[in-house]
Amino acid sequence: xxxxxPLRINPKISRLVCSSSGRVVExxxxxxxxxxxxxxxxxGRPVVIEYDLxxxxxxxxxxxxxxxxxxxxxxxxxxxxxFAADVGGSPTIELxxxxxxxxxxxxxxxxxxxxxxxxxxxxxxxxxxxxxxCGAERxxxxxxxxxxxxxxxxxARLGLPGCLVYMPEGxxxxxxxxxxxxxxxxxxxxxANIAAAGRQMRADVADELASGAxxxxxxxFEPGRLEGKKTMGxxxxxxxxxxxxxxxxxxxxxxxxxxxxxxxxxxxxxxxGRLDPAxxxxxxxxxxxxxxxxxxVEAFDAGLEQVEPVESRGTVADGLDVxxxxxxxxxxxxxxxxxxxxxxxxxxxxxxxxxxxxRHGIAASFEAAAVVAALHRLxxxxxxxxxxxxxxxxxxxxxxxxxxxxxxxxx
Length: 411
Ligand SMILES: [Zn+2]
Prior knowledge:
Blueprint: E1 8-9, E2 13-18, E3 24-25, E4 47-51, E5 76-77, H1 81-84, E6 92-94, H2 96-102, E7 105-110, H3 120-133, E8 138-142, H4 146-157, E9 164-167, H5 175-182, E10 186-189, H6 194-204, H7 206-211, E11 214-216, H8 224-240, E12 248-252, H9 257-271, E13 284-290, H10 295-301, H11 328-337, E14 341-345, H12 347-360, H13 366-380, E15 389-394, H14 399-404
Parallel strand pairs: 7-15, 8-9, 8-11, 9-10, 12-13, 12-15, 13-14
Antiparallel strand pairs: 1-5, 2-3, 2-4, 6-7
Helix pairs in contact: 3-4, 3-8, 4-5, 8-9, 12-13
The structure holds zinc ion.
């Protein structure tokens, strides 16, 4: 094991709560990893970390520490800069051409510059650090994309045994498999999709998960990934300032960690007095999905409180191929609290927007292209009004889709 300064639990954590029932979750002194709650029916619901905001005085952020520049609002502190100082810090920039074309202000935050190439690095860096601080020896997760790569990278950075990654059958020798292996992962294949891969994983390593030696890093199965994703919201608020917040934030929504995380960040900053919704309302959060797999959009349109699983018809955007959402209640709550929207775009619209991104010099993945497509839709329908400001979260760059396979339709 490489020498690393000790990771410590942030003493300003006030409590852990169940995202569904609101009941307090016992942290057991953080001597073992925190998983799902035990108050809801098995397997439980996501646990959310709350901070004693009265005790937090935010100074000016020094971005040189990457996402740990926001250590006061993260659950675990003390990592060496070599662990994650290169994570986050993506600038928020305006796209003047698209702004002129649409008669609004279009801002983008592109996450492609993170070490493993996507926004997943934020959540997995914090999730891995938190699990390690709680005594875990190894991390495991099912993945059909960048999350497994990111978890492998941060396991490698801590000198831990290779991350145990389960991928659906058919992912052998694909880009994600090769990337995860590059970062030392042990990759196993099971089932037709990520849900089946996850079931196999939980059966295979049930003992290690039960003892706390391993942490299940599946989306929302532990609270660290949400806290890491939160840093996107902290950066947006810092970059644009309380007066300059966008009216809308459009976010490609699979598991929804980033959507919920950005809203959690903005809410915490409002509670800390850094933002004042009475002066400028917080941004309206838009969940963007593929029409081929749109459980959140369907649940939102139906006025449901929970997201019911759907049958995915398959989408080019791997990150949107998520037919259910264990944090569906939190995603729907975020959209409604923020007076936001949920938009499903057709596969053809995603491919068209992907080509448009190329023409504009925007390094965008398919998930990011879906957000560009949704922007056109919302603007065309007049939902986004003249002169409003819309921020697009571009979760990864173009190299991932282009490195994976020829793009259907135009290549
Ligand atoms: Zn619960």
